[in-house]
Amino acid sequence: LTGSILHDDGCECTVNLNDTRGVDIKVEKLNKYFGELHVLQDIDLEIFAGETFSIIGPSGTGKSVLLKHIVKLEHPDSGEIYIDGFPIFANNKKQSERDYRYSMVFQSSALFNSLTVGENVGLWLREKRICKEYKIKEIIKEKLDQVGLAGKENLRTSELSGGMKKRVAIARSLAMNPDLILYDEPTAELDPVTTDELANTILKLKETTKNTTVIVTHDLNFALYISDRIAMMHGGRIVEVGTPAEIKKSQNPIVKGFIYTTT
Ligand code: ADP
Ligand code: MG
């Protein structure tokens, strides 16, 4: 974070928050073991720039482990992941033109209860001294507005419902204008109405942001509703990839079984 970027309104920022792009992700022959457990088995997957891509499947099939590899929270035993064509695990990796920004919305939301909603959203911007305080306040307002929480910056995080916490977590992830945003089980712990609201929020965000979105979920209907494409995972393997329409009429017995048991 060196140098500064002068924005249209005259505010100097250390990061150009207006250069968001969608990144494309290529997973190649990825294998991961936990002891005897072969949790990821020859995973091949391509996620296109700007796509909303869901990874579905029953619990324990390796979805979260795969997601963690994409953000380098786990390291594979073999294989590689390319972001915009650049390998992320290779030792002598070429430097990409500019680092991509990514952020993950964890299942637990992982908010700081001692902070207000606005403070949670502005945490990263303030910590990294991204821009001047007035600009940070503007960004917090804008992001809360985008997730349907306009004017809520002064609420205590501990006072919020599960659905609102999830929205704050999303707003916090959006604060850095990420090129890639990842969600792990965003609908877990949410009731059906709140799940619908969240689905519509994510769909609406897609209209205003260019980033790539990757979602891990066991919630098939949620994935069918919000995704451009879906990969079905089972037993550490990808068994099917397709658009929601293709997934719905898939003849793959594992996919059919999953649709049958969850609808
Ligand atoms: P899910 O599809 O439900 O997200 P996970 O990716 O979390 O499944 O886990 C896949 C398998 O890997 C599970 O059997 C889980 O217990 C195991 N696992 C996940 N993380 C670890 C770890 N850090 N150490 C050992 N085993 C793990
Ligand atoms: Mg999981």
Describe the structure.
With 263 residues, the protein is an alpha/beta fold. The chain contains eight helices and twelve strands. The chain has a six-stranded mixed sheet, sandwiched between helices. Helix 2 packs across helix 3, helix 2 runs parallel beside helix 4 (162-174) and helix 3 packs across helix 4. The longest helix is centred in the last third of the chain and has 17 residues, at 192-208. The model has no long low-confidence stretch (mean pLDDT 90). The structure holds adenosine-5'-diphosphate (ADP) and magnesium ion (MG). The site of adenosine-5'-diphosphate has 11 residues, from strand 4 and helix 1.
Number of separate strands? 12
DSSP helix count?
A: 8
Bound molecules: adenosine-5'-diphosphate, magnesium ion
Element-by-element helix/strand order: EEEEEHEEEHHHEHEHEEHH
The N- and C-terminal alpha carbons lie at a distance of 48 Å
Average of the residue pLDDT scores: 90
Largest sheet descriptor? 6 strands, mixed
Domain ABC transporter: 25-260
Organism: Geotalea uraniireducens (strain Rf4)
GO molecular function: ATP binding; ATP hydrolysis activity
Keywords: ATP-binding, Nucleotide-binding, Transport
Ordered list of secondary-structure elements with their pairings:
Blueprint: E1 5-6, E2 12-13, E3 25-34, E4 37-47, E5 52-56, H1 63-70, E6 78-83, E7 86-87, E8 102-105, H2 117-127, H3 133-146, H4 162-174, E9 180-184, H5 192-208, E10 212-217, H6 220-226, E11 229-234, E12 237-242, H7 244-248, H8 253-262
Parallel strand pairs: 5-10, 5-11, 8-9, 9-10
Antiparallel strand pairs: 1-2, 3-4, 3-6, 6-7, 11-12
Adenosine-5'-diphosphate binds near residues 62 and 64.
